[in-house]
Amino acid sequence: MKIFQKEIALPQMNRGFHLITDNIECAVPEMKQLSFGQMQVFIKHTSAGLTINENADPTVREDFESHFNVMVPENQAYYHHTYEGSDDMPAHIKASLLGTSVTVPITDGKLNLGIWQGIYLCEHRNKGGCRKLVITVFGS
């Protein structure tokens, strides 16, 4: 059994849903040593999340952003946590809905994602800054 762990910082990205599969794969070249295993990706933030979805058509990511903004709107009278901006509390809710980690199987040294799947950074702040990920890979 081999185990690798790295922390990486993604560059600041605009609010929205961004494919980061390539960033993750490039950060852990040791994955190529594994016949099978798993990769867990964890985001160390409370106002951004991770998910796996469509990697080909960028309108899917646009629709995710539009839907989440309708589902969790800004400037609601019942929000008390407002001192960091109108996008902050909705960002926390959106991040909780999506989650802080994804797990992907590894087969023959590669992520075993479906043909149309990619890992998204879900940035919910207008100016979220760089985001830190902890990537843990284990297998044989």
UniProtKB/TrEMBL annotation:
Source superkingdom: Bacteria
Pfam families: YjbQ
UniProt xrefs under SUPFAM superfamilies: YjbQ-like
Stated family: Belongs to the UPF0047 family.
Protein name: Secondary thiamine-phosphate synthase enzyme YjbQ
Organism annotation: Zhouia spongiae
